[in-house]
Amino acid sequence: MAKKLGFTPDYAVPPGRILEKILAAKGMSKTEFAERCGHSAKMVSEIIAGKAPILARTAYEFERVLGRPAAYWINLQALYDTRRGEQEERQRLEAAGAWADKFPVTKMVKLGIFPKPVDAVDKVRKLLDFFGTGSVEAWGSMFEAQEGQYAFRRSQKLKSEPFAVAAWLRWGERLAESIECAPFNASRFRDTLGQARAMTRIPPEKIQERLVPLCASAGVAVVFVPELPKTCASGATKWVGKEKAVILLSLRHKSDDHLWFTFFHEAAHILLHGKKDVFIDENGLEADAKEQEANQFATSTLVPRSAWTRFVGGGHFSERAIRAFADEIGIAPGIVVGQLQFNGLIPYSSRLNHLKVRFAWAESEGQAE
Predict the structure, then answer these.
(1) Which pLDDT tens digit goes with each residue over 136-162?
(2) Which PANTHER family would you find in this protein's record (predicted)?
(3) Residue among 190, 283, 263 nearest 223 (CA)
């Protein structure tokens, strides 16, 4: 069987051209045709030139005079309008190539966010579809409005790229749509954090399957989202409506101490701060009042301050002492190591790093293990 080849013309034929040929075949002048239809010769000339459309009423008049069904003329006009619209849309998309080049499209394709674009125009189209915006101008207005809501905990060394961050946030938001959540309940979410804390000791491959439904029962969608190039983000928090919060976790540092600190840090934003800001955390040292509050919440939730003071007061940070303390307070020993390093009590190059559990993304890079 012969293979059919698709053909999409890059031009649009005004229906008036066909009208002109039909009039010529019938030997009817434009003036006579206009009189028969009850219109001016000028209007007919404008239709033939493509400057005026064939309206539904006009199509029925053409049907009576020329014997061609009204649907014929209406369909010709619709096809012309569609072709012309496609041409104009392609021109708009071609002009947006520089905008599309600001996104890490190669990595987004590799992660399966959308199929590989066939050309520059298709790249713009796929990005607009991904963001759910009708045009680059609409995306710009939306991004500018949201950019002021982004609350970054920035590092002096790491500089995130806003376009990459916007794509990462949108990806997490889209993944969160598939997580069914109960209406947000602050009291219930606080209760779930105690259960989440106990999960620091379970095998890493079990964390996602247990943490996600637990938090969803309190109205919080937890999404594990690999970082995109130049996002430099460990986690983020945003609200989707008034009844659903989203926590994004990137596993950026790929160790349990960073993962759990980031999770409880983001949980603090949900419980303690407003629903309008979008918090994006880079694990930097610069922190405003809200970030300091979230840091303190995460630290004290993971390691109660009274127990911590007693432990560090002893000054014994051997592997045996760390394991015993972690067992006593019910958390993973890697978290204790991370706290000791953050407070400058042991070096980051410590041999005790082997107590930390390491994470890696599965081959799909959308599943933590």
Answers:
(1) 999 988 876 665 555 554 444 556 788
(2) ANTITOXIN HIGA1, BLL7220 PROTEIN
(3) 263
Q: Alpha helices, DSSP H only, in the chain? A: 15-26, 30-37, 41-48, 56-66, 70-94, 97-100, 105-110, 120-131, 136-147, 162-177, 186-198, 204-216, 256-272, 289-302, 305-314, 319-329, 333-342
User: Could you give the 3-state DSSP secondary structure of residue 167?
Assistant: helix
Per-residue pLDDT of 304-360, as tens digits, reads: 999 999 999 988 899 999 999 999 999 999 999 999 998 999 998 889 999 999 888
- Sign for the CA dihedral angle at 322, 327, 331, 332 comes to positive
- Coil, helix or strand at residue 334: helix
Distance in angstroms (rounded) separating the CA atoms of residues 311 and 318: 12
Q: Is 15-94 a CATH 2.40.110.10 domain? A: no
Which tokens is 165 given? 């961050």
For 279, phi then psi, to 5°, come to -95, 125
The residue assigned the tokens 């949900």 is 270
Residue 92: φ, ψ to 5°: -65, -40
Give the Cα separation of 111 and 109 in Å (integer): 5
Instruction: For tokens 């995109």, name the residue.
Output: 228
